[in-house]
TrEMBL record:
It comes from Acinetobacter indicus CIP 110367. This is DUF2147 domain-containing protein. InterPro entries: DUF2147 (IPR019223). Residues 1-23 form the signal peptide. It holds the Pfam family DUF2147. PANTHER family: BLL5882 PROTEIN (PTHR36919:SF3), BLR1215 PROTEIN (PTHR36919). Keywords: Signal. Residues 30-151 form the DUF2147 domain.
Amino acid sequence: MKKGFTGIVAGLLLATVSGVSFAENDPLVGKWKSIDDRTSYSRADVEIRKKPDGTYEGIIVETRNIPGAEKMNICHQCPGQLKNKPFIGLPFIWGFRQDPKNPLQFVQGSVLDPIGGKVYKGKARLSANGKRLTLRGYVGVSVIGRSVTWIKY
């Protein structure tokens, strides 16, 4: 009985360590600096995590103001449960899944515009070197939307 229990514990430990090292090697997981497509300023730092269900979620970990503008701290325009929540810790991308046909593409996501408070469909494309992420939020079809680039650090 003791030998069987030890084997189970060793197996669980190996599975846990394997899962951790997989997450560490996942090029989408980590901290990203968002670059505003309209101003070219970095507005926020985002941490992307892989959830147990295999989807990705991004939360805001730091915000910056555009020079000459007041720094925003609260999501006054956000819908539902996110309304009046602080930007720090706010999940604003969720549901992204890696495209099985193209491991550098992530699809079926949702993107919250924390300034305007609208939620859009989303997709993302990772650069070949894993250092740039192009995130696209859109309405209906991808052609009607907006793209931003994030830089991994």
